[in-house]
Amino acid sequence: MKKIIITIVLLFGLHCVAQNTIIDIPNWNGENNPPNFHLKDVNHILDNFVGTWLYTNGTTSLKIVLEKREHVLKGNYYEDILIGEYQYRDITNNTDLFNSLPNLQAALPSEYYHKIFGNYMPTTITPFDNPSPIRRVDLHFHDNIAGSIKIQKITVNGQNAIEILKVSSITTQLEGQPTLQPILPDGFYTLIKQP
Predict the structure, then answer these.
(1) Cα(131)–Cα(86) distance, rounded to whole angstroms?
(2) How many angstroms separate the CA atoms of 168 and 39, rounded?
(3) CB 139 within 8 A of CB 82
(4) Which of 25-34, 45-54, 136-145 is predicted least confidently?
(5) Which residues pair with 159 in a beta bridge?
(6) What is the C-alpha to C-alpha distance for residues 54 and 58, in angstroms, rounded to an integer?
(7) CA nearest neighbour of 179 among 190, 188, 168
(8) Cβ-Cβ contacts under 8 Å for 112 (sequence gap 6 or more)
(9) Exposure winner among 29, 100, 115, 148, fewest CB in 10 A?
(10) Residue 133, beta-bridge partner list
């Protein structure tokens, strides 16, 4: 009886270890991974970007809200990701040009349905003039066309801020159809963290 209990405990322990293999996000190469591994934000890099961030230029404003989700199922593994939504407003007319912020509270089929999501931490050359010592993240971004945002953490006049570069994907359309344009123009934006 004692041997049976020890065997069960050992098998259960091995089963748990196999399911809980952790790979730190920056160390992931996408190859030779065990099933059910966890692509984890071991050093809490994603935490630097969590919050509500606001950009204004006098005529428009951009509010981005980013949240961290842990242990999200993606195919045959789990990962920690940032998800987010945003509001782009015409301040002069007090109207929303785009607003997906209510989706943060909605029951979406998957975390990957959010307008902003991802966890990629590149080591390539930065697009920013003054690179931050904090590792940057690149996230998927979608309005009426897909794209991405590259985000770095900065400080502006003593305030926590992020600098983003928004880039739309190249789209193809059927002959005679209008070319889709992004709602949020591509370019650099500096957003201040809100309380």
Answers:
(1) 24
(2) 27
(3) yes
(4) 25-34
(5) 156
(6) 12
(7) 168
(8) 74
(9) 29
(10) none
- Given a contact cutoff of 8 angstroms between Cβ atoms, the answer to whether 82 and 46 are in contact is yes
Any idea which of 31-35, 75-79, 127-131, 144-148 has the lowest mean pLDDT?
A: 31-35
Cα(115)–Cα(103) distance, integer angstroms: 9
**Structure tokens belonging to residue 149:** 């945002």
Residue with tokens 């041997």: 3
pLDDT of residue 32: 76
Count other Cβ atoms within 10 Å, centred on residue 5: 9
CA gap 103, 35 in Å, rounded:
31
Q: How confident is the model at residue 38 (pLDDT cuts 50, 70, 90)?
A: very high
CA distance 18 to 34: 8
